[in-house]
């Protein structure tokens, strides 16, 4: 009888402990959800307030003429075509949990970063004239790269002749940061061909829309905003622009991404670009970094 009593007492304690653990997990998820929503509301109202103060943008329909007056170089007319995009959330892929990946010969740099030495195992050469197509074929074919089909070539985002840059996309807009990149490092050979040395990879899983799609500002609007904010000084050069998804917030394992116009500006003629970012929803300059906002 005493043994039975001890058994039921222990069982009761185990059940109470399980209930407490469940409630603790439930509380963690609730806090994470509330934090994300508070942050999204903050960025929404901040964007509304700041965009109201920049109505002067409408008075600069011909930004190209103003740039030319100030000897600011650019190579194309900035598009006034608007589009739509989303607030997104995603989870960095934990490669440590994927046994099949670790068994394929890759090196675990961090839990969310892997690399693989290709040249030590095989010789892969990309023809000079078709290097981009052959590099894309390499990551998409067979089992050379885990999740290879999730990446597309975006060499326009990275000016490095010794690498080929790929990233994930969401409805034709690429992610551009360290959480969703596949970089093939190459070595130039005589004759102009490229020898593949190795690659480094990060990946996003569970990409989800946090809101319905919304209108985004045009490339032209982003340039005007930067110009009015003195981010494009006289005598500088606008090297290139790109619409990307960028990470603005990280809480636990969930990251939040917004569409942003990235503008590379050469301010001193030294071929060292200054990267400027404009939130494509609020038309405000992104000045904070993920490290500033990240909550442990």
From TrEMBL:
The keyword Membrane applies. One of its GO terms (cellular component) is membrane. It holds the Pfam family YycI. InterPro entries: YycI-like. The chain crosses the membrane at residues 25-45. Residues 58-281 form the Regulatory protein YycH-like domain. This is Regulatory protein YycH-like domain-containing protein. It comes from Vagococcus elongatus.
